[in-house]
């Protein structure tokens, strides 16, 4: 497999965690979203992913984009360890939390949106994340065990840790979100989350490396 990734992209990080958890080795091709006006806009990369976003994964003779579509494919082709609970109610909760982050928070504060916000970038990102986290904190108080849903790492957790990293980057006060903070701390102790972390990627700038 070949993963087209950017060290700081939270969507790419989700997929890197899934690959690490499932023990799938891959080659990484960095796509710098800032350099050269954004390498994702090159004709070469557009041929791989017409949406001109990372991640993209070449695997089993196909090219997949969109992090949850990729993670779902990995889940179906490499079922262990599972990232979706067997219980239908818990599985629905995992998908709900994942969607909450991937549809309701992350796209509103990603690079393409922030470019449009000019000087209000930081304030906009903080507002988007804060309103999303207020709801997420409430949801997690009902679903969480050690992790987002019970005591098994799930697709929801793969979305949570990168989003908390975004929140920290945009200097969001995490004080009001003790459940999110506790789960994130537990996740960052896991090897798959450590090796896939933005601070430990081949394309991480020297000053940001762990």
TrEMBL record:
Q: Which GO terms describe its molecular function?
A: glutathione transferase activity; maleylacetoacetate isomerase activity
Q: Which pathway does the UniProt entry assign to this protein?
A: Amino-acid degradation; L-phenylalanine degradation; acetoacetate and fumarate from L-phenylalanine: step 5/6
EC code(s) of this entry: 2.5.1.18, 5.2.1.2
Q: Can you tell which superkingdom this protein's organism belongs to?
A: Eukaryota
Aminoacyl-tRNA synthetase among the record's keywords? no
Q: Which UniProt keywords apply?
A: Cytoplasm, Isomerase, Phenylalanine catabolism, Transferase, Tyrosine catabolism
Enzymatic reactions: 4-maleylacetoacetate = 4-fumarylacetoacetate; RX + glutathione = an S-substituted glutathione + a halide anion + H(+)
Q: Where in the cell is it found?
A: Cytoplasm
Q: Name one Pfam family in it.
A: GST_C_3
Tell me which GO cellular component terms the UniProt record holds.
Answer: mitochondrion
All copies of domain GST N-terminal, residue ranges: 1-82
Q: What is its main location?
A: cytoplasm
Extract one GO BP annotation from the record. L-phenylalanine catabolic process
Give start and end of each GST C-terminal domain: 87-206
Which cofactors are named for this entry?
glutathione
Q: Which family does it belong to?
A: Belongs to the GST superfamily. Zeta family.
The protein's name:
Maleylacetoacetate isomerase
Native organism: Sitta europaea
């Amino acid at each position: 497999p070949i993963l087209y990734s950017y060290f700081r992209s939270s969507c790419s990080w989700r997929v890197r965690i899934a690959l690490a958890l499932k023990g799938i080795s891959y080659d990484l091709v960095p796509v710098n979203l800032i350099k050269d006006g954004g390498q994702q806009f090159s004709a070469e990369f557009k041929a791989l992913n017409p949406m001109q976003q990372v991640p993209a994964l070449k695997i089993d003779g196909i090219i997949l984009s969109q992090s949850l579509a990729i993670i779902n494919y990995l889940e179906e082709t490499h079922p262990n360890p599972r990232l979706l609970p067997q219980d239908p109610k818990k599985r629905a909760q995992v998908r709900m939390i994942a969607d909450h982050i991937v549809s309701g928070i992350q796209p509103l504060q990603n690079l393409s949106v922030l470019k449009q916000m000019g000087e209000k970038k930081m304030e906009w990102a903080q507002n988007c994340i804060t309103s999303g986290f207020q709801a997420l904190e409430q949801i997690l108080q009902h679903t969480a065990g050690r992790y987002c849903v019970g005591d098994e790492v799930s697709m929801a957790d793969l979305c949570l840790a990168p989003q908390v990293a975004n929140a920290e980057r945009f200097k969001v006060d995490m004080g009001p979100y003790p459940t999110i903070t506790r789960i994130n701390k537990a996740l960052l102790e896991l090897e798959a989350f450590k090796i896939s972390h933005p601070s430990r990627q081949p394309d991480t700038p020297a000053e940001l490396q762990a």
